[in-house]
Amino acid sequence: MAIEIHAMELRRTQPQPCTDPNCRGQHAPAERVALAVSLCAARGNKLTPVRRDVLELLWESGRPTGAYALIEALEQRYSRPIAPPTVYRALEFLMSERLVSKIESRNAYVPRAHPERQHDCLFFICSICGASTELEDLRVVDVLAEDAATLGYRVTRRVIEVEGACPDCIPAGTV
Ligand SMILES: [Zn+2]
Ligand SMILES: [Zn+2]
User: Fold this and answer.
1) Ligand sitting nearest the alpha carbon of 116
2) Ligand nearest to the CA of 126
3) 14 in a domain, yes or no?
């Protein structure tokens, strides 16, 4: 019953592509999942229930999440064991669709805030609470494009990870 209600809610949620260039990615998980369904459909690819659930869990987690935490969360959701390759394949698909990014320094995954836009990912990661913030900074994109051109590189992956302490974790008065 709970699963049926959940599916109905998902069907009711309409994707609302984001037009705010300064948006920090504060979107409702259900809306971003609905957007992912429509983006995949437009490309002729299918967001299967497992792929959709992995994406939804990442949105609900709110911080970089490792594959094993996702497997545990899925096992709870489905009340049955989940084979690790199922989750790894779902993550591979989500990354190939540019719906999810891997934070290499954490060996963890985050949903891309704005998969409806073509942009590169700049992640700030708090080493105290583990939260991550995705930023689109066109200046960084331009500098990297210039550097790649100077070196003669054709770039296939651009994920920049910056570690530090987030505003919530810096003691008051020390900034
Ligand atoms: Zn937005
Ligand atoms: Zn923090």
Assistant:
1) 1
2) 2
3) no
Residue 107 within a domain: yes
User: Looking at the domain assignment, is residue 156 inside a domain?
Assistant: yes
Question: Are the beta carbons of 44 and 26 closer than 8 angstroms?
Answer: no
Burial of 133 (0-12, 13-18, 19+ CB in 10 A): middle
Q: What is the number of domains present in the chain?
A: 1
Q: What is the pLDDT of residue 1?
A: 45
How far apart CA 2 and CA 10 sit, in angstroms, is 12
Distance between Cα 74 and ligand 2 center (Å): 26
- Amino acid identity, residue 9? E
Domain that residue 59 falls in: 27-164
The CA 124 to ligand 1 mean position distance, Å, reads 17
> Using one digit for the tens of pLDDT, what is the confidence trace for 107-165?
999 999 898 887 767 899 999 999 898 888 888 888 989 999 999 999 887 889 999 99
- Find, among 117, 159, 142, the residue nearest to 25 by Cα: 117
Query: What's the confidence (pLDDT) of residue 166?
Result: 93
- The CATH number of whichever domain residue 138 belongs to comes to 1.10.10.10
Residue 116 lies in a domain: yes
Pairwise CA distance, residues 103 & 130, whole Å: 11
pLDDT digits (tens, 9 = 90+) for 126-137: 999 998 988 888
Per-residue tokens: 44: 């002729």
